[in-house]
Amino acid sequence: MTMETPFAITLPVGSSLANRTGSWRVERPVYVDLLPPCNDACPAGENVQGWLYAAEEGDYEAAWRALVADNPMPAVMGRACFRPCETACNRAKLDQAVGINAVERFIGDFAIEKGLGFDRPATATGKHVLVVGAGPAGLSAAYHLRRLGHAVTIYEAAELPGGMMRYGIPAYRLPRDILDAEVGRVVDLGIDLQLGHPVEDLAATLEEAKAAGRPFDAVFLGVGAQTAKRAYIPAGDSARVLDALSLLRSVTEGERPLLGRRVAVYGGGDTAMDAARTAKRLGATEAVIVYRRNRERMPAHPEELEDALGEGVKVKWLSTITHVAEGTLLLEKMELDETGFPRPTGETEELDADAVVLALGQESDLSLVANLPEVKVDNGWLSVGPDQMTGRAGIFAGGDVVGQDMTVTTAIGHGKRVARAIDAYLAGSRYERPARHALAGFDRLNTWYYSDAPRTVRPRLDAARRVSTFDEVVQGLDADTALFEARRCLSCGNCFECDNCFGVCPDNAVVKLEQAVRGEGDVFASGGAGRHYAFDYDYCKGCGLCAQECPCGAIVMEPERA
Amino acid sequence: MPYQRAKFYQVGSFAVGNRLLAPSERTVQSSLARTNSLTSGHRACQGCGEALAARYVLDAAMAATGGKVVVVNATGCLEVFSTPFPETSWRLAWLHSLFGNAPAVASGVAAALKAKGRADVRVVAQGGDGGTVDIGFGTLSGLFERNDDVLYVCYDNQAYMNTGVQRSGSTPPAARTATTEALGPEPGNVFGQGKDLPAIAMAHGIPYVATASVADLHDLEYKVERAMAFRGARYLHVLVPCPLGWKSATAETVRLARLAVESGLFPLLEAEAGEVVAVTPLRHRVGVEEYLRPQGRFAHLFRGAGRPDIVARIQQVADRNIARYGLVQEAGE
Fold first, then answer.
1. pLDDT tens digit string along A548-562?
2. What global pTM score does this model have?
3. CATH number at residue B33
4. Among A79, A118, B79, B178, whose Cα sits 20 to 30 Å from the Cα of A86?
């Protein structure tokens, strides 16, 4: 070997590159994208980690665009969602869950304030889809269908769009200007929204459209569950009994129903909480929830119960109403058997109440499909397959009408899934949900690297003030606190470019992408953010330090092939 | 700590880099422009802490001096694995003479540079714990006494690893090495021997002494940069876990260094002119057992009924460090 080196230099600089130490390796590191628990838990299928990644950089428009790829109504979500993402959040095991919902609301409000609009659909497919119901499921389906290039007509029975978002969620939780802004933006995509247009016989509606020369190629039924369930309670003539849905609806329509000073609410779901809090706002000095089981078995979300209790709402646990008379109720005490089912005890007590609000659940009015025998009904709900299609080809359903986990977020998720299923159906195929990535559990994280930072607690109006008005209760984040909160995201299972692998490799075998290929002189060109890294398997010895020190678990070691 | 950690970024405070940090807040190692002083193809074992630390330290020194560094290396793993003839992994001016004379050679290089009027070129000498605390100790003490303008860096893996894991003056008590077998009532290395070289360096009253670990890069780079701001003799002692000699998993190198620090067994400190001026407080204090258990060299302390008495003695060493340097601080980081 001849050496051309300057005086007193005995070895060519960096000449060890001739020694390919990659041959030592028995395991190789591989970059992976895992499913963060927040994404996994989101009923609307949001890429939470993905949009937080953009929000961390303060690029709220990019964050909003990433968010609305899955969910067109972030400002509504930021107020009405029960945030299963935060329940799942790995950060909860470290200090407290990331305030995902608060950031989502901030991003949604930011978009409204800046007047951001959706991208118009690039192509027109020539297909025409009927959406029945302008609630969260219908609007979500219409939005996604429109973005896929299909023409969409919505028939909505009510005079205003929004469904349960408008008629079921009180204004103190979801201000109407926010709802109007986000619904309006969906409709502005070029959706033909026909209000005050109930569909009573779907078969006839489809025939009329065909006869009129503008047939529907597919249908989505998102009619919700608009009818309050009743229970038979013996009542005296002058007893004031009404249902929670009617109460919430009439308040939305600007009425102030007379309930009296003492109001009892019968039921244990979120609607019961809303009804009790609404009664307080209407002037009741006492609002008492009567529920037949105990706190552990209550279907309402714990936070909703806490908020209600914080406003002075009282709860009579393990009680049923057996008789209603003017000014007084007869309650019977219950006890739970070993399966958790409430059994009467025969012991009774009286409760003073001027009115009783029944919040005993909702059901769907399915008379519109009575003339379509292939559309099956199961236990009061429409029966659908994994792609949300009913027994009749081309007719799909989602949201409350299929009777699963009846929340706004689930309905929005159904809308998205249905849009994809309809898109596949219109193209002559069947939609199959893509395989999910492996979950990024807490044990995959190296939490040492995450800075300790407490959660920004949303300031709340004090209870006294909030009870007397329909103003929004939970205040939002400002730009600084939103950024802080977004940056608490651990980015579970997805590289966020912390450079740890690039740094901790003893063999310089991690390259930042867009870096020049290693060559003579070992010169590196500039690399850029967002391009991640690659392993240089010529030199990687497979020690596993990169995988061990990756904060977010985005590197796995795989056995080297022989 | 005299420097401010970045706050409220996912990992900005402790990871190598972060896309959200201003470039000035990022480490040298996060940069594409880092020197890669020790490049690929070297023959260090998988997961070598010393190879990692040498690149960390020298890249930081290169960044702090605008690339004007001459390195003098003692004999040891670092020299052997980086320069098997006819290859070298070094990408800076580097020379090696003998096991025990690296400080003397560095003094000579510094003198030559001074004679040539090249005060801009800085000298870094480096070696393992064997070459530093034992074999090169005399010449190192001379360098300190003369206050020659050299930064001496000891990469401490706590034994002679290259020759087969023999005990050095830096081997911790109870550790098994080839010359301190885990036999008899007092298995492994004895208690009460060995040298605390950072303290000895401080006793020379030289301008700057610091300890660092491969587990805290921001801290390490800060200390190298700080050292290069002084003229005269400076000493940096870096803990570098060795998967071979410590009988630990190759992927655990950084984690073990972190546990050594967080247990209090390896305090991170800075001293100027013989006085401690700053310590890095423990962030998540752990007991010594958490540090000792993953290491095969301490396996005899946990086999069968184990030796909780010896573990307790090691815990006392950690507790003494924590009290002596005030490593547990009340509020915040």
1. 999 999 999 999 976
2. 0.87
3. 3.40.50.970
4. A118
